[in-house]
Design brief:
single chain; four-stranded mixed sheet; 13 helices
């Protein structure tokens, strides 16, 4: 069967609003370490990791063996109505690592479900459906999660069970706060929060949900310390803080284990997903016991925290800590980030190289300003694939190349990928200039 056959079958039975990467979509059939192979036998260095999900890489013996041990018991699923040893052990680790005292953990299958669960407990705890969210954010595809998503491209319905008020993100490149000096941006964001509370709410707001680095939004983030400044205002009103760590968690930013730690604050709730399962469906919310215990009726996830996924999760987390992958993300991420900034400093088509650790974005614009250039971004994106490198796309305007490689990425692989990416950028820019 050829890839063309599979593509035709895909289009015949799956909805058109499910995107496929590349002008000629590829099927990945094998993987090892940080490399994958497509159905045509072409090998790629993977800098996107299944959307930042294959955090440890592919075909990792420790993870495979943990899953195989669980499979050999014959218990793939029991539901959470029974004790699950792997689930309890993983919850203990997550609670300990969360930084939240006396924490409780609820497991789900995806980041969307994790954010739904966080919103469920926050609205119950505060007896309010009023939510503060951040412009350019993404929190999932279900109604409530989509309702707090501030990115039109990912808002597939105008229906919303929540009353949402929107805050400025504090990004550096465009928007009202971008006009200010970095030192003034946090004060302006606090003023914005106070005005929103005074004008768009009735006061009894449930929570603020925010990403330390906006994932789908193109790895945009405000200044370090922004969350702490927001929290001072939130605390005046008893409003909870939810840190959406679906993409920033587990040491990916290099400098910290969680993205929120760059802000000098401890959230009431943290949502997590993606990397902790390394491809197995695993996510959840961890938070203060009094908040997690606010749900007034039975609520459980049939598959959330199932024996196989939590077996994988335990192996992933143990591997992550045993190999100090946070430090590796900082070290190898610096090779990529510094290398990209140096190699593109003379290109006015590159507006910004941003991010932290192994969470990096390159934003492309038209000459002479900050007007987004999604066409150039697509050209670079396709050129990377042609050169043997898989990257992602994102940003509010679809003009950001996103990179979230496995945290096991080596220095040599970082330099290899950097060379492919720089060549893709330069040849794509040259081709547009020549045209």
């Amino acid at each position: 069967m050829t890839s063309d056959d599979l593509l035709a079958r895909h289009r015949a039975v799956l909805p058109s609003w499910m995107p496929l990467y590349y002008a000629e979509p590829i099927e990945l059939v094998a993987g090892s370490g940080r490399r994958v192979t497509d159905a045509q036998g072409r090998s790629y260095l993977d800098f996107f990791g299944g959307v930042l999900t294959n955090m440890i890489g592919y075909d990792i013996p420790e993870i495979r063996e943990a899953v195989e041990r669980q499979l050999s018991t014959g218990i793939v699923h029991s539901s959470t109505l029974y004790l699950i040893r792997q689930q309890v052990e993983l919850a203990e680790k997550v609670a300990r690592l969360s930084g939240i005292p006396d924490a409780r953990v609820f497991f789900t299958n995806s980041g969307t479900e994790a954010n739904e669960a966080a919103l469920l407990v926050a609205t119950n705890h505060r007896r309010s459906h009023q939510i503060l969210a951040v412009r350019n954010s993404y929190h999932g595809r279900s109604y409530a999660a989509m309702g707090v998503t501030g990115n039109r491209s990912w808002s597939a319905s105008p229906l919303n069970p929540l009353q949402v008020a929107w805050l400025h993100s504090g990004e550096r490149l465009r928007g009202l706060l971008a006009r200010l000096d970095e030192s003034d941006r946090i004060d302006a964001a606090v003023e914005d929060l106070r005005e929103v509370l005074a004008t768009q709410t009735s006061g009894d707001v449930a929570c603020l949900i925010a990403e330390p680095i906006q994932g789908v939004g193109g790895f945009v983030h405000g200044p370090d310390g922004l969350f702490a400044a927001w929290q001072k205002v939130l605390d005046e009103h008893g409003i909870l803080l939810i840190s959406d760590e679906v993409q920033t968690g587990w040491g990916r930013t290099g400098e910290h284990f969680w993205g929120y730690q760059a802000h000098g604050v401890t959230p009431d709730l943290i949502t997590f997903a993606k990397g902790i399962g390394n491809g197995f469906a695993l996510a959840g919310v961890v938070g203060r016991a009094d908040v997690l215990e606010s749900v007034p009726a039975i609520s459980f996830s049939t598959f959330g925290g199932n024996p196989v996924s939590t077996a994988a999760g335990n192996a992933v987390l143990d591997y992550l800590l045993d190999h100090d992958l946070q430090a590796n993300a900082a070290r190898v991420g610096a090779i990529l980030g510094d290398g990209l900034r140096a190699a593109t400093a003379d290109l006015d088509r590159v507006a910004e190289v941003r991010g932290k650790g192994l969470m990096l974005g390159v934003e492309f614009v038209r000459p002479g300003g900050t007007e987004p250039d999604p066409a150039l971004t697509t050209r670079v994106f396709e050129a990377c694939r042609a050169g043997g490198l898989l990257v992602g796309k994102g940003g509010l305007y679809g003009n950001v190349v996103r990179m979230g490689p496995p945290l096991t990425l080596t220095e040599d692989e970082a330099r290899e990928g950097l060379a492919i990416l720089v060549d893709a950028i330069r040849t794509s820019v040259a081709a547009e200039v020549a045209a």
